[in-house]
Amino acid sequence: MKIATYNVNGVNGRLPVLLRWLEQRQPEIVCLQELKAPDERFPIDAIRRAGYDAIWHGQPRWNGVAILSRIGEIHETRRRLPGEGEDAQSRYLEAAVNGVLIAGLYLPNGNPRPGPKFDYKMLWFERLIAHARELLDSGLPVILAGDFNVMPTERDVYKPERWVDDALFAPEAREAWFRLVGQGWTDAVRHLHPDETVYTFWKYFRNAFVRNAGLRIDHFLLSPGLVDRLVRAEVDLEPRGWDKTSDHAPAWIELAAG
DNA sequence: ATGACCATCCCAGATGGA
């Protein structure tokens, strides 16, 4: 079973790229971030024609997350973190699919730092950490997947020294990441590729993708029971080179049958 | 060290992204 995460940077603007990649790769489950569309503009018809069912949680202009499945029913369990109000930004969606609990998330960017946006990022992070504890304690097989907007280590940034004051690489954000992982989660890509340079995002500017001036900010965290089932963890670089593409590349993991 | 590019939306230029 392949499970993917893809920050599409506008689900309607990137629809041809998304559909081409779904057709090519055929992941069973996909978490999408940055829909940038209100709920009524989610392209559900095109996604159904591609063979997927979906749930989504959008808002006008910004944010927005979705979970797609071609393997079985999507049983939604949450659409916001505990502690978030009804009017919160659309950044979290959780569902049981084919025997696994999938949490699709889009953690706030947090720039500029310091400032209210960074405070919101860290507050959101704390809510995620508290809820992740509950998910671990449930004993269920759980995957936290999405755009965490954090590069955990220097290996995850092309020029670490340029990013130390940025909200994506700030000590507070990295500390929160390691506190989350320290609950007992496994970073799937690093587990299988401990020493490789792996990026999931490249700016549009200055030929960043061609220069491989990238960041690793899209992640999969696995609950302990899933680690033995992890057989692959990859980033699809090809779609990042397509015309009218997202600034992120899709990442995916493959789990053996449980 | 800075600015570069892209999407969205009452369609122009502000805002957010990372």
UniProtKB/TrEMBL annotation:
The active site is at Y106, D147, H248. The keyword DNA-binding does not apply. Its EC number is 3.1.11.2. PROSITE patterns: AP_NUCLEASE_F1_3, AP_NUCLEASE_F1_4. Mg(2+) binds at N7, E34, D147, N149, D247, H248. Probably binds two magnesium or manganese ions per subunit. GO terms for molecular function: DNA binding; double-stranded DNA 3'-5' DNA exonuclease activity; endonuclease activity; metal ion binding. The keyword Metal-binding applies. GO terms for biological process: DNA repair. The record marks N149 as: Transition state stabilizer. Pfam families: Exo_endo_phos. Keywords: Hydrolase, Magnesium, Manganese, Metal-binding. It comes from the Bacteria. The record marks H248 as: Interaction with DNA substrate. The record marks D218 as: Important for catalytic activity. Residues 4-248 form the Endonuclease/exonuclease/phosphatase domain. Its cofactor is Mn(2+); Mg(2+). NCBIfam families: exoDNase_III, xth. Belongs to the DNA repair enzymes AP/ExoA family. This is Exodeoxyribonuclease III. It comes from Croceibacterium soli. The gene is xth.
